[in-house]
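Our consortium's second objective concerns turning raw sequence data into structural hypotheses that experimental partners can test. To show how far this objective has progressed, the report includes one record in full. It was chosen at random from the queue rather than selected for favorable results. The single chain below, 206 residues long, was entered without modification.
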Amino acid sequence: MIQKHQPHYNIKLKQGTGYPYIKITNERDPETKIVSQVRKDGAYYFGPYPNVYAAEETLHFLQKVYPLRRCNGFQHRPCLYYHMGQCLGACFKEVPEEEYAKQIERIKSFLNGNVAEVKRHLNGQMKTASDKLEFERAAEIRDQMHYIEVTVEKQKIISTDKTPRDIFNFYLDKGWLSVQIFFIRQTRLIKREKRLFPIVMMRSLR
């Protein structure tokens, strides 16, 4: 029903249960966004990510630190995001392609796991906020670091093709049943679920 009616305030289940990707669009004035499918459109795709909320928070972080375009394009005046430092200004001027290219390389490096410099910067900000007794701000930065770690963590490549697979396995021992499910997307093991069940032996009554 959520996917059918698309309620305005439900943001978690509108796109179904698939894993999202972070996309850098292939446009004159590119932008970053969350998408649910990979298309052959010349864009850059990163993912899929098993944690939707962490992917969204990481996208928000990227839009603040490595801004591209966040407005709808040229509108003769700077947009709100430009004043907030989250848009390079395609809304009112021609942004050099070289400037976009530099930002895109930074974003690609970050999403490929090169996050040490960013984390050092955030650690410094968190310490400064804590020293100033700005504990809510420090907690917000701490959460940002957590989302970054969850989103860009290294994922093990375990196959040679891009066929999505869910692999089930079980093991029975000493009255217990262990069931594990491995979720493979884009040649990578991105998530594992495990459950343990007691085995109850039933005897037939004669």
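The partners drew two points from this record. DSSP finds six helices and six strands in the chain. The mean pLDDT is 81. Both points have been shared with the crystallography group to help prioritize constructs.
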